Amino acid sequence: MTPDDSIIQPHWCDRAVTEVAPDLVGCYLVRHLPGGTRMRGLIVETEAYSPEDPASHAYRGKTRRNASMFGPAGCGYVYLIYGRYHCFNVVTAAAGIGSAVLIRALAMDMSMDQSVKQRHRIAAGPGKLCQLLQIDRSLDGHPLTPRSGLWLEHRQMPLAASGLVQTTRVGIRKAAEKPWRWYLKDSPEVSKK
DNA sequence: CCTCGGATCCTT
DNA sequence: AGGATCCGAGGT
Length: 193
Known about the structure:
mainly beta; 8-stranded antiparallel sheet; DNA-binding; 193 residues; 3 helices
């Protein structure tokens, strides 16, 4: 069972996105499906998308698709990419400010699968982790709480500064030079360096 | 209304 | 290096 004090409350995300994104590395994403299946992964890679960022979906203002980015902190923003995959974000900052953290990769708990070999890369990539955790647009805008079946938990151990790497983001054309990606050093699930 | 291209991933 | 596959955004 999850102790209540390990669950990340929505107001924890009510900060600048470039603060929340590195802080989420080392935290956990937990999924509880209606059938009772429970999955838990260590967040090993994140990216920040801020309001004045040409690479962000929120850059040109609020639309039906990106509305949850402008909603309250601690909710999910889920979108469909390339007609095939979903991507999951944690909304940050106050309502009205369009910003979110893309969760790019998870290291799943051991108990998830039988083979250690298979364990490594089943949630390596923003599309793959949504496939595994069955995250789609029906969760868009939902608060990240146990009630929603999707929530965040705090780090179990402090993260040494030397274990966190900051670098540029993946798969974007605009603002590609901004160092707004963070990952856990030596994680095999992390995207190309 | 039409066109373009994307915060991806897998195969060739 | 290219294809799958869909829809939002922006221009006409």
